[in-house]
Amino acid sequence: MSVNIVLEHLYIVIAAVAITILIGLPLGILAYFRPSFRKLIFWIVDVLQTIPALALLGIIMVFLGAGKLTVIIGLFLYSLLPIVHNTCLGLTEVDPGVKEAAWGMGMTKFYSLIRVELPLAFPVIFTGIRIASVTAIGVAVFATFVGGGGLGSIIYRGIYIQNMELLLSGTFTLMAMAVFFDTVMAYIEKRLYRRSS
User: What are 21-42's pLDDT values in tens digits?
Assistant: First the structure.
């Protein structure tokens, strides 16, 4: 198996998760500060999560054509739910007394958010990032159907030519990648929770 294919898969996943963090965090913060928007935001990300991944990529491909951009946008949309939800949840769970103390010290809501609330909520937020990352690794298999490449091309080719060795090679590489990322991120997550306790 080509190392380039593994790197291509990683590139797609990392790019999608990075975009999801950049957009998901502000959406989660907006849902936290504006309860009137919360239901709408959660409804949208919930609906996106219920669309089958291959169908979502197909819809995007109609507008953007085949290629990595289609896959990255599809993974971004598919990965929004855990990051948006956990960002809002983490901020909501910050002790109200801590928030009041920050405001009592003269901090603005924005300054309190950046310096106090987000750091305290970060373990919960990181859990959402972990879920989104591991999910994206698996869902990115469908990239091959819309010209995105990655490990899905190996698995699909193995199925198409009925080559069990090729199929297992792609599958085990994908599993190893998912387990590695999940294990490393779970370790970081535990350290974050210990520090915040």
Answer: 999 999 999 999 998 899 999 9
Written as six digits, the tokens of 5 are 């294919």
Task: Set out the domains of the chain in order of their start, with CATH numbers.
Answer: 3-196 (1.10.3720.10)
Phi, psi of 178 (to 5 degrees): -65, -45
**What is the reported pTM?**
0.92
Using CA atoms, how far apart are residues 42 and 28, in angstroms rounded to an integer?
Answer: 9
Residue whose token pair is 């009592």: 104
Higher pLDDT, 104 or 9: 9
Report which of 30, 10, 124, 121 is spatially closest to residue 75, judged by C-alpha positions: 10
Q: Are 31 and 169 in contact (CB under 8 A)?
A: no
| Interatomic CA distance for residues 127 and 186, integer angstroms | 8
Give 3-state DSSP helix, strand, coil % of the chain, rounded to 5: 90, 0, 10
Residue in 14, 86, 15, 13 with CA at minimum distance from that of residue 45 = 86
Residue 1 has pLDDT above 80, yes or no: no
